[in-house]
Amino acid sequence: MVFLHAHTLKKLSEHAESSFAWLLLRLLSSPGCSSDFIDTAEDDTQSRTFLDSPSLEIRTIGYRIQSIMKTIRAKVDLDDRYWPGGRHDNDFEDFREISILPTPDEIASVEIPYYRRMCDVYNVPEAQRAATHYDNQFRLLREDLLAELRNDLQIARGQKKGRRSAPPVHGLCLTGVGCGTDDRRKTCYLEFACTMGLPHLSCLPKADRTKLLDDNPHIFRHQAFGCLLSKREIVAFVSLDRGSSDLLDDLPILALVVSGSDELTRLFTCAKVGPPFAFLPVHTPIFAYEPILQRLQQVVEFPLSQILLASEPKPELLTLDDDLATLVRQIQTTNGKSLEAILDTDMKVSLDGSQLQSLLNVLQQSVSTIQGPPGTGKSFLGALIAKILHDKTSKTMMAICYTNHALDQFLEYLLDIGILESSMLTYPELQDSESTLKRPRLRGFQDNIVFVDHSHPERELHEISEKRDPSMKTSKQNLYEVEMALKIVKYLGQQGQLSLLRTELSKTNDPLLNDLDSSDLLKAGLLTLGSPKVLKSPIRLSTIDNYQGEERDIVVASLTRSNEAGDIGFMAAPERLNVLLSRARNALAMIGNGGIFLKSRKGHLTWQPLFEMLRDHGHVYTGFPLECETHPDRQVVIRSPQEFETECPDRGCSDPCSAAFACGVHSCTRRCHRAENHSRIKCIMTMEQTCPKNHKYYWECYQGAPRTCPTCLEEAVEAERLKREDAKLEAKRRATQLEHAKKLKEIEERIRKQRQPLKDEQGNRNRRDALARKEEELKSLTAAADRTRVSPPTSVPGEFPVDSQPEGGTSTIALQSEARDEWQRQKKDEDQSNEALDTLMDMIGLESVKESFLGIKVKVDVVVRQGASLAAERFGAALLGNQETGKTTVARLYARFLSIFGVIPGRFFIETPGSKLANGSVQGCQKHLEEIKSNGGGAFFIDEAYQLTSGNNAGGSSDYLDEELQSILQHHMHQKYNGRMRVEEGPGGLYMRIVARRVGRGRGRGGFGNARAVNNVFARITDRQAKRLQRQRRLKRPANDLLLTKEDLLGPDPQTVLRKNATWDKLQALTGLQSVKQSVEALFDTVQFNYERELAEKPLVEFSLNKVFVGNPGTGNTTVAKL
């Protein structure tokens, strides 16, 4: 009850309302339905609650409820679900209540329509059988209409492929209602304003619109059928009342007749609240169905139904007129022999028994059927019956045949049997209208009717059969006639005779005429490039059988057939000749072999009268008889396609035109052509001129001389563009400078603020150091003494030194890496990270390189702890190795490594070969350095650096002495560490002097750089210090970052290195080779001897490091050399 109450108060949502309607439908369909439910359904039906719902689903259920209510009142069995009515708003039990035109709901319905099979009709009681048959015929025929309409709607709406009848008209707004004038009333129509204009018309001037509609009556034809759409939904089906429409106005008005009151109500509702409508034309032939459907609805009596619909044959005898009854008795007495006297015919008539009985049955019964195989005289018997009924009765007869050919044959029988032709005229006597006598002359031709007689043979197409003539196995073509037809159509187009050639012909419409476009009309001055395209019918290419019922102003016909046998195929039929001669309104041009058609055995009787008439009136030519419209005395007969180009190349004559153009300077250089006004033709003569800057420029005459030289204009535009670009770049540069200055000022201010606390802290630190200096020195000396007592670790001398193993350790295997293990320890114990080191450690080999990277890292860490600057440190490196050993890869990793540790500010990387850098001289190198600086800092990698050479300056050699070099070293240490770095034996002690002597020993060699050499040596000293401090930190020993020991300054003791060196142990383990071992040991003894002489400040013993290994193959020469 709550549900019903909410429904009554209209408080249900659309979904709930649909559920309520469905429930009510189920209750009504159930056996023993309560009267309360029937009363509810009755109220809803009368109030149209469901029928007027905006939901299609609810309306569909409402239609079924409405049908059930009618059935309940009529006491119909509800168990039969397949019953007429209830599927939509146009489905009723009585077919006379059905609207012939469908409703939108009916089109949208997916329910199976109601109609019966013929056997179901015969199952109906005989009293109701005729009405049921008419009902079924109406529904079947209407379903054919709906099927075609649905198909056309899908094509028009783009839901299915097919040819659309007309484009849709959008933007329709309802403006009024009309029903004709007071003098002449019409069916009520609605007026719609086309706010978006009409397709193909809105872009044309008003005069052109009128001409277009006159020339093309099929555009918006009267009673054109279509539908009104709102939001792509069908609102109503309508038809166009063209007489009441105003199609020429700038705001066109369409008068549309709406079918059905319900559709009209729905249209008014949508017009009030919805968007503008769209009119969608469809070409469904409603007119072909509507009269028959209307007649079926109007019939109340069913003649002959008791015979045609009887379950068993029931012959019904006629009540004959006296004359006809007398004739029947006379025929019965003759037994079918010699009936010509009785029937008043000129031919002899005799019938056999079956024919006689069929004749008597037809004359005496209301319905008769004559059946029989071909050749049994059915057509002759039909003509005989028509003769009797025509002579003996006053009734009107209708002869219906399945095909036109059968009808023509039957009419010939009637003529042969003696029925006069005047009695068989289907139409009254036709007379030519006066307008047919005022047809325009065919321009460019000497005659309006032309038959071009030729003798060019036809050609067979073996791949195509001729379906219209079963006796022919192949189709035919005539290339000469095709070329002549193509040329003459182009000629007619340039004469302006064909309205359909006013616009370009689409290639898709006319594949044979794809070279025919509007260029000829443009040349003739009849069109301009800006002229809009006008909707015209394309050139119609058709066979003669497919051209019945159509007309054209000009027809060009190719008869095709031309052979020695005189075979013209289906062209022998007079019907086809009739179509050929009756399709043209103004002019007819035929191309064919007349002699073949007269020679034809089957067709000469048909074609001979035509050719005699054509010859008598002078319409037969050996080619196309043309004449020049400008020079009428120039007449010519064109016999071949090539002659068109020589006799009338521009569709005039061969004389020169010489008419002056609008410019008044030049004349037309073409041959005679059609041009009503040369002032409308553009003069395309090329003009030339030279500007003051000697630039030559050209133009076509109709364009007029340019006011300025195009080249000068381009140069001026380019100059202006460059100025604008320069101005933009200058503005950008100034903005960058200002931004840089602003940021620089901010950074300087921050530096000042950061420096002040450092200065204060430094002052405090200096005062504290002054108070406890003696104590600090004592502690440092004590710690240094302790460290000297510990056995110093050894390292292998070389370009990249490595740590020696601790005393008592064991040798590592080949795949182990002390550098990688050390890096893993630092990451684990000291929480270190560096992606470049991770990548390097993953590489195979390169152990010395990895150790050097770790050494640089340790050095950087020490410098940071020492509070010193890295600016004076040298981090350049030379990467030596064979090709493809990873030098470039390591160089890039080295740059990333330094960037991550803050040694260099950025990661920008430049790679260049040494030869290119040498060729670029100082400027090239400076350019690379500036590029690195501009990109935020980075690394400079020189490949093949051996190509760079160095030497003394032009002033000769003037190197520093050892004492001066020692002073430089002391100054560098003091400046870097602010005097805080302590040296074992003191800054002027023995070890510092030895370092200075080692530096000075490089004087006179290539690349010696004095102070630079001192800096390089000091860098190696700090490297050794950093590694030493790292070892001490790893062993948890105290380490003084501000102390340089003997090992740091001079390197490890050679004796200690040899004792702990794995390579030396490996050599000693080899069998034999005693002399080699002694030679190597002597070498190291010499190194140890020189080391001791350095400590004693004595001159060193000079010796060579080169060795020659002599021995037989397999005695270990290569192995010992590598060791």
TrEMBL record:
It holds the Pfam family AAA_lid_6. SUPFAM superfamilies: P-loop containing nucleoside triphosphate hydrolases. InterPro entries: AAA+_ATPase, AAA_lid_6, ATPase_AAA_core, CbxX/CfxQ, DNA2/NAM7-like, DNA2/NAM7-like_C, P-loop_NTPase, SF1_C_Upf1. The keyword Acetylation does not apply. The keyword ATP-binding applies. GO terms for cellular component: nuclear RNA-directed RNA polymerase complex. One of its GO terms (biological process) is regulatory ncRNA-mediated heterochromatin formation. Keywords: ATP-binding, Nucleotide-binding. Residues 748-779 have a biased composition (Basic and acidic residues). PANTHER family: DNA2/NAM7 HELICASE FAMILY (PTHR10887), NFX1-TYPE ZINC FINGER-CONTAINING PROTEIN 1 (PTHR10887:SF341). This is AAA+ ATPase domain-containing protein. The lineage of its organism: Eukaryota, Fungi, Dikarya, Ascomycota, Pezizomycotina.
